[in-house]
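Supplementary Methods, section 5.1.

A reviewer requested that the exact input to the structure prediction be made available. We therefore reproduce it here, unchanged from the version used in the analyses.
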Amino acid sequence: MWLNSYYVLKTKERGRKNYSLINEWVAFNIGKLLDVPIPKAHIIKIDIKDKSSYGLLFDYKLPVDYLHVCHVQNIPVWKFLSKLRNVDTFSNLLVFDIWINNKDRSSNYGNLLVTKKDDSYYYYAIDHALSFGGYYLDNESKIYSKNQRYVN
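The structure derived from this sequence is encoded token-by-token as follows.
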């Protein structure tokens, strides 16, 4: 089933407290609850015996349905804004990003995939690894510290 599709794979780095997979998974589920357009995601464990046959290097993967996008380029989302069919969900995306403390949406053109289907464009929110304060959390680097100030 998944061998004939396109996927984006996030991996867990060995030897570091890398919470990127957890951040992606939690953000995916919150995004779905808020009706944010977001590709399907799953956490899978690939048996170590099967890794080499798929060309994989890590045990745990987060395969995200890549929506059959063959060409990816960094284009500011405002260039597509008037053409998007699901622009009405941008308010959901804004609430979502505030709720998960996503600091990565405003950089790199927004981390949105834009796909074309039947002469219409749709956006999908991707890349939530830096949510919840980042992906390398330890005792010195918590989601909230007494020195941080947030203005809502």
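The CA atoms of residues 2 and 49 lie 18 Å apart. These observations are discussed further in the main text.
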